[in-house]
Design brief:
Length: about 375
Amino acid sequence: MEPTLEHPQSSPVETNRFTRITVVVPTYREAENLPHLIDRLGKVREQSGLDLDVLIMDDNSQDGSAEIVAARPEKWVQIVVRTQDRGLSPSVLDGMKRATGDVLVCMDADLSHPPEAIPQMLHKLEEGADFVIGSRYVQGGSTSDDWGFLRWLNSRVATLLARPLTSARDPMAGFFAFRRSSFETGHDFNPVGYKIGLEFIVKCGCERVVEVPIHFEDRQLGKSKLTMRQQLLYIKHLRRLYTFKFGAWSQLVQFLTVGGLGTLVNLVLLTFLLRLGLALKPAVALAILLSMVFNFVLNRRFSFGESREQHWLKQFMGFMTACSIGAVINYVVTLVFADTFALRAQLAALVGIAAATAFNFIASRYLVFRSSHIRPPRGQVK
Ligand SMILES: Nc1nc2c(ncn2[C@@H]2O[C@H](COP(=O)(O)OP(=O)(O)OP(=O)(O)O)[C@@H](O)[C@H]2O)c(=O)[nH]1
Ligand SMILES: [Mg+2]
């Protein structure tokens, strides 16, 4: 018998057709919604013929959810009751790791996301998309009428803040689908807050993000778990994603913003101290010192928040030293540009400030707040 030759060209052509789909549903106290969700997913399964299984990731709700699912006849629905590392994003991440489908879908349990959109979302993946969002904000998409102005504004501002990370119109959505192979290329997942989809887009390097319009229905049953705290966590999450995607550039923008605020603090303090009757020299010195402390606190909290596990006092001394050297650089550069190049004093001062800022940033980033655990994304320049 002729031996079969293994040859790359003889391998079957990839059809890009998916064989199995796992729908991951994070839940907390959704017992009232689960039967409706399973019914609707069952209909989608029947009508589309998709081999779809459902993984309900429940954070130990103790509201009868586990019993309801156990009593259901559908073998394709499973519930995992979690007791550790609770929270929406960790549950989704956990579910994605357990999922066996070659396409992973994530959706809420409260029927806000229509399961009927899943086949169309898969179709977009088959057409070549990396990541498909069930979207409220593309043409044809909508939200229930009773969204108040504040909720609408909140959602819009949050979306705008995610613009540098993806051009998607609804990047905050919790309804999305992507290939398991994309998920497996992701790394350094560190989900905080509610926006796990955005985490996957950025950390799995999904470039072709496509949106399918959906009608987002307000929850009818059960209670919302979205709190003010979750919204604040979003800012923290965004900051981390910016650092992941843009590395030192993101830190530079934050550093410059802090520097701008520090300048304002300096001016306000100086005015205040002079009004208190302090002489000019001590007032200037105190205003500088306090604004340096202000800059230190904000830079440690935000620009270089990743290296906060190091001792603050050592970092404080380092920052003050770097700023002092920066001040000398500012002085020397300003004089050189004013004397040697005969630049106007104000212009020379601007050059001096730019040189000192560059020095301060480099010293802060690479010496004072050195952080060894931020790794650049694979294949991207940090
Ligand atoms: N596993 C798990 N799921 C959660 C947790 N918090 C919320 N969920 C689920 O995540 C999904 C989204 O939560 P919702 O409370 O609906 O949040 P939301 O859609 O932003 O807010 P509403 O519009 O008020 O419904 C739902 O299926 C919740 O049950 C949690 O801590 N753990
Ligand atoms: Mg909801």
